[in-house]
Specification:
Shape: elongated
Bound molecules: nicotinamide-adenine-dinucleotide
Distance between the termini: 21 Å
Order of helices and strands: EHHHHEHEEEEHEHEEH
Number of strands: 9
């Protein structure tokens, strides 16, 4: 394809794997050790909030030990250098995209560094541990704080903005996601309907691999920087051609 005008990128746990954060569904992934119904559903939280707080406290503490990798950094460079419309949508609850300079970024499954008060509905940045005794900094209520992530059975965030960007994009790139979790797994079909070129960058073919026009398989730290390099080179070529069209 030629240089795109509007890019939407979707990332999943695979982009953070080489930073040392476990994925969910791979062998040794988080769901091989913990039952998601206990720690990632509203019912699990109602049954045992202490267990859920402990699970996310561990994830939040883990962020202090990790750094963005070459794939996060390449996406930060792409956003800074790309002249067209750009949106990065992540399913990840970590903050590695922000640390690598991404700004036009939506966390569709929330953030582990954010807390939501079930009493007043307000959000707060949250960097330490959370417990059943935590107090809301806004309304002062004790015992109604939860991690601000989207659990199974809950509606992902920012869907209107994401779907509008997908409907208007001409390049859709999916990175490091297994294609198991909807609605994110359906974005590729929406992008195709909108006429976009669709690319999968993953360690192995995802569930929805046959929906993509193009696929590159390998480790994110290797294939994402190379993909970004080629995309930016194509944009420079297109700009030269606009200035001095080939005869
Ligand atoms: P997933 O665990 O289902 O799939 C991860 C995918 O990444 C797999 O297809 C795997 O082949 C691929 N992968 C693994 N290592 C890779 C590497 N080095 N380079 C490239 N690809 C690699 O994760 P998902 O699809 O993101 O599942 C969605 C859910 O997982 C979301 O709800 C998200 O919130 C959650 N999640 C987030 C984090 C995080 O914040 N870092 C971690 C685990 C899970």
């Amino acid at each position: 394809m030629g240089a795109p005008n509007s890019i939407v990128i979707l990332t999943g746990a695979g982009i953070s794997a080489e930073s040392g954060i476990d994925t969910f569904r791979d062998t040794n992934g988080i769901w091989s050790k913990v039952d998601y119904r206990d720690v990632a559903t509203p019912e699990g939280f109602a049954r045992n909030p202490g267990k859920v707080h402990a699970f996310y406290n561990e994830r939040r503490r883990g962020l202090l030990r990790v750094r963005p990798n070459a794939a996060h950094e390449a996406l930060g460079r792409l956003e800074a250098a790309f002249g067209g419309s750009f949106l990065l949508v992540t399913q990840n609850i970590d903050d590695l995209h922000e640390s690598a300079g991404s700004r036009r970024l939506l966390h569709m499954h929330g953030e582990v560094n954010s807390a939501l008060c079930e009493a007043c509905g307000k959000r707060s940045r949250w960097s330490g541990d959370m417990s059943i005794n935590s107090q809301c900094p806004h309304c002062g209520t004790v015992g109604r704080m939860r991690v601000d992530v989207v659990w199974f059975g809950e509606m992902p965030y920012h869907m209107d903005r994401i779907e509008a960007a997908i409907a208007a994009c001409d390049l859709f790139v999916s990175i490091g996601t297994s294609g198991n979790v909807y609605p994110a797994a359906g974005f590729v079909e929406q992008a195709r309907l909108a006429g976009a070129h669709t690319v999968e960058l993953n360690l192995e073919p995802s569930e929805g691999y046959s929906s993509f026009n193009e696929a590159i398989y390998g480790r994110a730290t290797e294939i994402v920087p190379e993909f970004v390099r080629q995309l930016l080179a194509a944009e420079v070529d297109a700009a030269f051609e606009r200035i001095s069209p080939l005869p």
